[in-house]
Every structure is written in structure tokens, then in C-alpha cells.
Amino acid sequence: MDRLLRDDAQTIAEGANIYSDIAVRRLDSPRMKICRGFPQRLHHTVPHWVEPGALFHIRVALDREKEQRALTDPQLAQGILDSAKFYEARLRWHITLFLLMPDHLHALLSFARDESMSEVIRSWKRFHARMNRVIWQEGYFDHRLRADERGEQLSVKMNYIRQNPVAAGLCAKSEEWPWVIDPFGREH
Q: Does the global pTM surpass 0.85?
């Protein structure tokens, strides 16, 4: 198990370079712009491997009893966002929204049918604990959005997450917040 985690951490660490020389292109589209080694815009129809209706609101927090740098520290924040995109590229999860706050993050994620959500999140948290010395709070919050929470309720949930930095007084408008992956809105 420990060997798998080391291999996973090494793969993620190398992930920033995985796309650096690849021109990402759909058959029916022109060349896609590459940004920091990842496509600037990801194709965001829900992949076939995602269980229909399996969308989760995930909240992961720092251990507030330990003094540490904020998740929005520019170098750390960029590494976290890059690893989130890497996990999506590796089909570990599908991002609907991913937003960093100084002491926690919110994400709307879908997971593959054959992946354990808790194992995927545990692996991702462990990578950042080892590579970036992030001390996470034990566990995480998750809420599965039911089919009847889609549509308008999903929009409300996404708006709540997008407005988090505004409500905390970190920016005047949600569009100004740089630490977000928002394929259906805007992306950092």
C-alpha cells in the first residue's frame, strides 16, 4: 500500500510535465491552448465512466490547530489546482467546480464507478501532506446531490461555493477569485 502511495505521489509530482509537449485536440476542433501543462479548457461533458447522478459536494479543511500556510498561498494553491486537474486527467474524478479558500476547499466532484471516493480523496490529501506539508483535518465532508437537487438546486450550490470568497471578504466579486477551477463559469 505504501509503495502505491509513493508511486501515486511521484506520478502526481510528474503530472505537471505530462502534457507539456502534447497538443490536445478534439477531432472536430482546432488546436486547444495549453496552460501550465494542462488544456486551458477541459472538455466537460460528463465522462461515460461516471455513475449517472453521482455528484458530490466535498469540503476538505486544514487542521486549524496547527499553524501552516494558507491553501491560497500562490505556490501551494497552484500546486493544488494542478493536482486536481491531474486527477481529472487520470480519470480519478470529474470536476464540476473546485474552489480554494485559505483554510478549506469546496469541490463538486464525480467519481468513477469502480473507484472508492474515500480512497481517492485520502490519496490526494496524503500527496499534499507529504509533498507540501499540508496538515488536513481528519476526514472530509461529503454530500451526494440527489437527482432532484440538479438543475436549479445545483445552480444554487455552485453559486454558494463561488460566493464563498466574497462572503469571507477576500474579494469584491466571485469573478476576481483566482483559486478556482470552474469549467462551467470561468477557470483560473
A: no
